[in-house]
Design goal:
By secondary structure, the protein is mainly alpha-helical. Among the domains are: about 60 residues; about 80 residues. The chain is globular and about 55 Å long. Keywords: Membrane, Transmembrane, Transmembrane helix.
């Protein structure tokens, strides 16, 4: 397999050769050697085609690598949420692989749902997930913040929960922890301790680890209270919701995915 550095070097060398051919072609024209001129022009065209298609191949490989690593983060978060949402993320993931252009409509869809009088929060969640898949977390954060300022309390709460998750995708754990919805005491919501556990594990310090365990226990308790018989059958999901070490390993994997995305994004700027 040809690596990127070699391919770029080959493209540069071919481009230099093209310049040399152009110079020689001018000399030939000056000397009125028609046959040799036609030969050189043909060679020049062949070199141009090589550079053109090699450049497209390199760009395609670069974009493919970036897209692949971007898509992995929401998969990890989906596993943490559990059953149905993980399945939806899996479906979105494969749709995105099959047609990456479908993700470009996510921003328009998000605007439409945010402006609805009675937003479909399930659809809203998937729109934000798609924006994350396409590497547009910053745009999602801006849109959600604007929606929170304008929304009624119950809508603002749901919007802010999505904001927390999006900030986690960005690796902005401290900012996510500042969101007011995570301190809400009057709503029983498993997402609250779940996100806090993810944030504290990701921050990594010992005091955060102790807090992470407490949040995970609260998350586990809420799940037990709302669990419906026969709902969860996936062995991995059962382990994540019952064993802290397994849960922590998935969070660390998510954190590494986020770091890798940021590293790739800087590399290809």
């Amino acid at each position: 397999m040809i690596n990127d550095d070699f391919l770029m070097s080959l493209i540069q060398q071919t481009s230099d050769f093209n310049d040399l051919v152009k110079t020689k072609a001018i000399e030939v024209v000056a000397q009125h050697d028609e046959r040799l001129f036609i030969t050189i022009v043909t060679l020049l065209f062949a070199c141009y085609m090589f550079v053109f298609f090699s450049g497209r191949l390199w760009k395609k490989r670069k974009n493919k690598k970036l897209k692949k690593v971007v898509l992995t983060r929401s998969m990890s978060m989906g596993v943490l949420h559990g059953g149905e949402l993980a399945l939806e993320r899996l479906i979105d993931y494969h749709k995105a692989k099959a047609n990456f252009l479908s993700l470009n409509s996510a921003e328009t869809e998000l605007d439409a749902v945010l402006n609805e009088e009675r937003p479909d929060f399930k659809k809203l969640h998937r729109c934000v997930a798609k924006m994350e898949m396409s590497g547009k977390e910053s745009e999602a954060v801006m849109k959600l913040r604007n929606a929170i300022r304008k929304a009624e309390p119950h809508k603002a709460y749901e919007f802010e929960m999505l904001l927390v998750e999006t900030l986690i995708y960005q690796g902005d754990y401290t900012e996510a922890l500042r969101c007011k919805c995570l301190e809400e005491k009057f709503i029983t919501d498993a997402r609250r301790p779940l996100y806090k556990a993810i944030i504290h594990i990701s921050l990594g310090y010992r005091r955060h680890q102790e807090e992470a365990i407490n949040c995970w226990k609260e998350f586990k308790q809420i799940r037990e209270e709302f669990k419906r018989p026969g709902k969860v059958k996936d062995a991995q999901l059962i382990k994540i919701s019952t064993k802290f070490d397994k849960f922590k390993s998935v969070v660390i994997s998510l954190k590494e995915d986020i770091k890798e995305v940021h590293r790739k994004a800087k590399k290809y700027k």
